[in-house]
Amino acid sequence: MTDSNPDSTAVETQDARPSNFLRDQIAEDVRSHRYGDAIVQTRFPPEPNGYLHIGHAKAICLDFGLSQEFGGKTNLRFDDTNPQKEEQEYVDSIQQDVRWLGFQWDRLCYASDYFPQLYDWALQLIKSGNAYVDDLSADQIRQHRGSLTEPGTDSPYRTRSVEENLDLFQRMKAGEFPDGARVLRAKIDMASPNLNMRDPVMYRILHATHHRTGDTWCIYPMYDYAHGQSDSIERVTHSMCTLEFTDHQPLYKWFIQQLGIFPSQQIEFDRLNITYTMLSKRKLLQLVQENRVSGWDDPRMPTLSGLRRRGFTPEAIRTFVAAAGVSRTNGVTDIEMLEHFQRDDLNRHSRRAMAVLNPLKLVIDNYPADQVEHVEVANNPEDPSAGTRSVPFSREIYIDHDDFREVPPPKYYRLSPGKEVRLRNAYFVTAHSIVKDPAGNITQVHCTYDPLSRGGNSPDGRKVKSTMHWVSAPHAISAEIRIYDKLFSKPNPSDLEEDSHGNPIGDVLDNLNPNSLEVLTSAKLEPSLAQAAPGDHFQFERVGYFCVDKDSTEIRKIFNRTLPLKDSWAKIEKKSSA
Ligand code: ATP
Ligand code: MG
């Protein structure tokens, strides 16, 4: 793992849970009765403008996990202030994903439910001389804003009377003006070193249909005007969010103070970033819209729906997020760490099965043609309670093309002419001859078996160097296997070449891995997999972890490779501790 969290506190508390500044702050507030006898109240506040990704999983685990620890409650609140980008589809998927991750909210809330209250508060701020209607265009407002080194300049409309402001704002709401004609701004300080305090826009005119309020409103509150007050309305005690909101906190406090409402406390933590992974909803939307992926739930996507379809589990994601920790500095976590926790979980919980991805027929010449035996094999050696199943064995079986070489390279211990190997749980076989097609491709291998080695051991104590998986040919079911690799080919997907002026060349999507999906159409699986249902997880022995895709039908099974068996993370860990 990249050591990216220099500030993270890893002090072990008495209950052996590593402490962090969020937990410490909440514990301190509970101890000091900062909110009287009020329970710890948190919320997870997504904007319904895309599907949740694994970065959101971190926020969800913190929001729900910490309130649970302190006997508190967590709301799911949609910060739905932007009708142009928000949709019911996103609202539904977000709820599904939060539940899937293992959490249940107390109240389901929408910032749009607070539109009447937010409007009344805007009137209140106008009346107290703290807000004004501005006729400048968006461009002019930007020009007046100044920069980090230069103060802003006051709008000529800043000194409007309360009466005029009230009149104009009410007429904005009544629909008298076109989009963009006017805005309502907070009257704070155009010279503030914090740009967010330079008279930020509170309301804009937008004649758009909202996914919940329909055409009731033609003015919409800005996110920064709605977010803090929504927390306050829900009496959120600890409002946790990512570091980019640190500079917005003074503004949220200003609104709350001017209005004299419940003082929610905002605490910021680092965003989760993962190597080879894009965690920006805007960019993920672009991937979907440009058909670079099959949808939000494409198994290569870092969305929770994509990860679920790929075969990732909520347990592993929660363990990973906890292990990645929280900090006050943004860093990057290696994707191998996520994969490590996922393999660990699947190793313990997934049923084993035999599957041949690139089949090569192996004919056992001395095995009776009409004989079928059934071998009893463990469903999961890690979990005896998973039981056993019986797997048919017959004269013609499939092995993987990779497991046979006509001319074996040095240290190749699998099957080759004259070599003896073990067929897992079955017999020893020795290869003798091969059959090729006119193009020279090997189409069949002929071998003999040792009937005394039934179960996979020879009574004379003979050793073989390799054990191979197999599937009985007449019993096999055919399947499609989708092999996924990283969606981006660079550790930092946003890493772009620069021209001589230091400007980036091209687009993040130029860093897409062209080989992120490989489809194998002729895989052969053991017959027990005919019963597998979408979402079921398996370890295909010697190959990797797989899960049944939702496109699967009774007739045609489709499996997604969740991860190959190889655990590069364990290797990295070994290397670094050596
Ligand atoms: P994006 O930048 O991808 O559009 P966002 O922050 O705008 O994401 P929201 O719907 O506003 O998306 O996010 C809901 C909550 O999830 C916020 O509190 C936000 O701080 C948190 N969050 C978003 N991305 C991450 C991340 N990568 N790591 C941790 N928390 C995140
Ligand atoms: Mg956001």
Describe the structure.
The chain is α/β, with parallel strands linked by helices and 578 residues long. It has 13 helices and 25 strands. Strands 10-23-24-25-21-22-11 form a seven-stranded mixed beta sheet, covered by helices on one side. α2 crosses α11, α7 packs across α8 (249-259) and α11 runs antiparallel to α12. It starts with 20 loop residues before the first helix and ends with a helix. Mean pLDDT is 94; it is low at 1-14. Adenosine-5'-triphosphate binds at residues 45-47, 55-56, 58-59, 241-242, 271-272, 279-282.
The total strand number stands at 25
The low-confidence runs, each spanning 5 or more residues with pLDDT under 50, are 1-14
Mean pLDDT equals 94
The helix content, as a percent range, equals: 25-40%
Structural class per helix/strand content? alpha/beta
* Beta-strand share of residues: 15-25%
Strand order of the largest sheet: 10-23-24-25-21-22-11
| Overall shape | elongated
Largest sheet: 7 strands, mixed
Number of alpha- plus pi-helical segments: 13
Oligomer: single chain
Separation, N- and C-terminal Cα atoms = 15 Å
Radius of gyration: 31 Å
Bound molecules: adenosine-5'-triphosphate, magnesium ion
